[in-house]
Amino acid sequence: MKITDIKFAMLRVPLKTPFKTALRTVEKVEDVIVIVETDTGHVGYGEAPATAVITGDTHGSIIEAIKTMIKPKLIGEDIEDLNRITHLIQGSIVKNYSAKAAVEIAVYDLFAQRYNTPLYKILGGGEPTISTDITISVDYIDKMVKDSIDAVNRGFETLKIKVGKDIGVDIERVKAIYAAVEGKALLRLDANQGWTAKEAVYALTKLEDAGVRLELVEQPVKGYDLEGMKYITERVHTPVMADESTFGPKEVIDLIKMRAADIINIKLMKTGGISNAIRIADIAETFDVQCMIGCMLETSISVAAAAHLAVAKSHVITKVDLDGPSLCAFDPVVGNVKFNGAEISIENTPGLGIKEIKGLEMLG
Ligand SMILES: C[C@H](N)C(=O)N[C@H](CCC(=O)O)C(=O)O
Ligand SMILES: [Mg+2]
């Protein structure tokens, strides 16, 4: 099964409600879809969002990196040579992680199709059902409380509360949500780099002293501020998770050695795809550190790949933030991963099992 072409399309899906974080407000998913064709007629699909504020990637940079740097290296390569291909992808250009991720996802899809088995089985197998949290966008306190209660009523047992704005209001946001859903849902916070280290310690201590129990706090300070992450990790009881502070395996090793966080958020769009995500999970397991699998604003192509990985690595990927498809107004993809509220389940068809993507706009 040899790679003959790589084509591009756009997939646009409105969100149910605007997605608001400390970094940005977004109203629709607009992702680049990568279609890898082979001489046997098998097709692999990948996806990349343009999360410029986190990864630096734009639609233009994703397409250009694949077209000019990755694709020329892959044409004619045999899908059976998976490790060689992922090495070629990773070595084709520095950074550009979302572009690399999209191509790797399509290649892994094809590799699993080649062996006629679902991707998670090729990655090591596991119980093909996992449970995701849902994001509560940062907003007025009453709106966040209402959104949290609605999410609990829809069956979500873990809420990822976006904070990272005004510290005083953030404390009130979390207290109000906790009071509304206590005993019904676990709360994790994501400040998306919005606090300073001192603010984070102040806010988390206030919340801890008020009896608010949090599962974790994600990326309280700027991604580059590892000293700040360490400062917080040493001073609060709430476990600290690194998101924007860690992209690839080397950063994860550095962060773990520094003891700058307790948990790592693995996202395919930060790692450059599945091969490095596996490395990070293995590194974390070696150091006895737990991981979350996360996503950007992505549909059920790349989030499906992340779900397959989460199933296969569930002994170390113990937390799941794969709510991209649940945030979308509809699911345009018919594949083997089903997103049903909090439950994500995988059917027994080859690869990512993608049969149809509604509304694909092919690019020339
Ligand atoms: C969608 C997911 N639950 C999430 O919150 N991801 C964000 C980044 C998403 C974005 O801005 O596109 C995160 O974990 O920081
Ligand atoms: Mg985050």
TrEMBL record:
Keyword Ligase: no
GO molecular function: metal ion binding; racemase and epimerase activity, acting on amino acids and derivatives
Matches recorded under InterPro entries: Dipeptide_epimerase, Enolase-like_C_sf, Enolase-like_N, Enolase_C-like, Mandelate_racemase_C, Mandelate_racemase_N_dom
One Pfam family hit: MR_MLE_C
Annotated active site: K162, K267
EC number: 5.1.1.-
Record-listed Mg(2+) binding positions: D190, E218, D243
Cofactor annotation: Mg(2+)
Note on how the cofactor is bound: Binds 1 Mg(2+) ion per subunit.
GO biological process, one term: peptide metabolic process
Annotated keywords: Isomerase, Magnesium, Metal-binding
Domain Mandelate racemase/muconate lactonizing enzyme C-terminal: 141-239
SMART domains: MR_MLE (SM00922)
Residues annotated for substrate binding in this entry: R24, T135, K160, C295, L297, D321, D323
Signal peptide, first to last residue: none
Source superkingdom: Bacteria
Similarity section: Belongs to the mandelate racemase/muconate lactonizing enzyme family.
Record-given protein name: Dipeptide epimerase
Lineage, opening ranks: Bacteria, Pseudomonadati, Pseudomonadota, Gammaproteobacteria, Alteromonadales
